[in-house]
Each structure stands twice: as C-alpha cells, then as structure tokens.
Design brief:
Layout lengths: L4 E7 L13 E6 L2 E5 L5 H6 L8 E5 L5 H4 L2 H10 L6 E6 L3 H10 L8 E6 L6 E4 L3 E7 L7 E7 L5 E2 L1 H7 L3 H8 L4 E2 L5 E2 L1 H4 E2 L6 E5 L6 H6 L5 E5 L7 H7 L4 H11 L3 E5 L9 H8 L5 E3 L5 E3 L1
Parallel strand pairs: 3-4, 4-5, 5-6, 14-15, 15-16, 16-17
Antiparallel strand pairs: 1-2, 1-18, 2-3, 7-8, 8-9, 9-14, 10-13, 11-12
Helix pairs in contact: 10-11
C-alpha cells in the first residue's frame, strides 16, 4: 500500500476574505510529515477541521510577502507554543519575509517554547530548498508584483516490494528482507543465487505536487513540473478580466489550464479566486475547455495522491 500523500485546502481565496473563501493556505501530509504552504488569515480555524496534529508540522513554505499569504502566521506560531511545542520549526520563503518573522519573534512571543528558524529562498532560480529521506521540495520561480516562488514537492522512490511467497519458499530470514528490498539477490543454503527480480515487485510510483501561487503564466513552470500528479495553479480571473490579470500579476483560468496542458500534468486544481465571483464554475468551465481534468479548490477539500 502506498504511503500517505494528502493535500488539504485551508484557504483558496484571494486578497479579500469572503463568507465563502479564506486567503491562501494549504497543508501537505507526506508520509505523516506535515508541510504548511502559505498561511493566510483564518488558517488556525481552518486547521481545526482537518483533525491533524499541530505538532507534526515540520516546515512552512511561504511564497511571497503579500498579506493574504502570511497574515495568519503570528497566530499559528503562537498557538503551537501554547500547545507545548518544543521541536524546531523551519520557515522557508523570500528573504524579504525574514524581517517579518524576526519582528514577530521579538515582539509577540520572545519566550516561545521552541526555536523558529528562517531559511531564505532565492525566488529567481529553480532549486532544491529542502530534502529528507522521503521527499524533495524545489522552488518554482514565479512572476508576480514582487519576488515570489511556488514549490514542487516530490516523493523520493521507495523500496521494492518483496513477494511473500518467495519469503516462504526460500525460507528467507527477517534480517535479510530489507537488503533484498534494496536490490540484493538471495543466496540459499545450497549456494543457489536467486536474482532480486524474482524475489521482488517494483516499488510504488513516486508522486508529486506543484503549488503555483500568485503568478502570471511562466513558461518554465511547464518544464519544471512536467508530469506531476497534481498542479495547483492560481486562476484569479476569467479571461474576460485579462486586463486585471495583467495589471496585478495574476493568471486567468484559461492561462492556468494552458500551463497544465503544456506540463502534461495528471490533474489541475485552480484557486486564489477573486471575490468578484459568486460562482467559480465560470472559471472551471473556462479551464476545462483547455484542460479537461480540472477541479476547483475549496476549503476543507482533501485530495489523496
């Protein structure tokens, strides 16, 4: 069975909160490690609906220094402290946000029970910004009104699966199982070498998620995100409001779908909806004319890869 790779939408509205949508915030649960993507207002309340454990957040990835992506951060950090967090928390984002985080630490919670460590991201290059044994997180240079980057989260390959009947047939001991999963052959007591290909089946396919927040269409995104399972791409406006998209550094639903089509992604999720739209199905229909496998983001939506 594949390991967990879930995406929770906590907020998918744009700068103006509405009765329907909160500002940008998402959670990625990859093999029980939680990554927070942006942290707009209302993130704490939206988190409560997920049922996830606050203390399992290991890293926060911020895209840019607009308030609808970071104004929820002070309360989020404070609540984790009130709940007794002691493990360090890593925040990644543009260098311009480091001053904001340091100000919060100094003035709002100087006696925080855990360490908050800020790691600046170069928003101009596609680069590895974090990795551990199970994942890689890459920056995605975007084009907005100020330095901005999205993030590509890629699962690392797992081990092969050992066939249960082979364990029984060759009487393979427990201590040898992980070595065989890692690619080793097995030598029986009589000296017969059993090739690894007979003992195992291939590992689960690796999965990936691309988070493209506030941005105009960027040609390089299609190459960097080639074949991802799921792409989130902002679609603030319909094509009829293209002039607004150009003025404010955003994308239309059609443009988001064109990026997804060029990248040959498995599925597209659009979000960051302008408050002018009472019914986002207008945006969904526009996107689906270009890329059929498109869905709308929505608060409390959970997607499993």
């Amino acid at each position: 069975m594949a390991q967990k790779f879930d995406i929770y939408i906590l907020g998918c509205g744009s700068a103006l909160p509405t009765r329907k949508h909160l500002p940008s915030c998402q959670v990625v649960d990859l093999r029980d490690k939680l990554l927070l993507l942006d942290c707009g207002e209302g993130a704490q309340l939206a988190w409560r609906f997920t049922g996830l454990n606050w203390q399992r957040i290991t890293h926060i990835f911020l895209t840019h220094a607009h308030g609808d992506h970071v104004f929820g951060l002070p309360g989020f950090l404070s609540t984790m402290g009130l709940l007794g967090r002691t493990a360090p928390l890593y925040i990644h984002g543009p260098s311009s946000l480091q001053t904001y985080v340091e100000f919060m630490k100094a003035h709002f919670f100087p006696d925080l029970s855990y360490d908050v460590r800020y790691e600046a991201v170069d928003t101009t290059v596609h680069a590895l910004v974090f990795e551990d044994r199970s994942m890689e997180v890459w920056s995605l240079p975007l084009q907005h009104r100020l330095p901005c980057c999205g993030y590509l989260i890629k699962e690392k390959p797992g081990l092969a699966h050992i066939r249960r009947e082979m364990i029984d047939f060759y009487e393979i001991p427990v201590w040898a199982i992980n070595n065989i999963k890692a690619g080793q052959d097995w030598t029986t007591a009589t000296g017969e070498v059993i090739p690894n290909s007979r003992l195992t089946t291939p590992p689960d396919p690796v999965r990936s998620y691309a988070y493209c927040s506030d941005t105009m269409p960027v040609p390089g995104v299609a190459d960097w995100c080639r074949g991802v399972d799921l792409m989130y791409h902002e679609a603030t406006y319909a094509e009829s409001e293209l002039d607004h998209a150009l003025r404010y550094g955003h994308s239309t639903a059609r443009q988001a779908a064109e990026v997804a089509k060029a990248a040959e992604v498995g599925k597209l999720m659009i979000g960051h909806f302008s408050s002018r739209y009472e019914d986002e199905n207008e945006l969904l229909e526009e996107a689906r004319k270009v890329f059929e496998n498109t869905i709308l983001a929505n608060e409390q939506l959970k997607i499993t890869l």
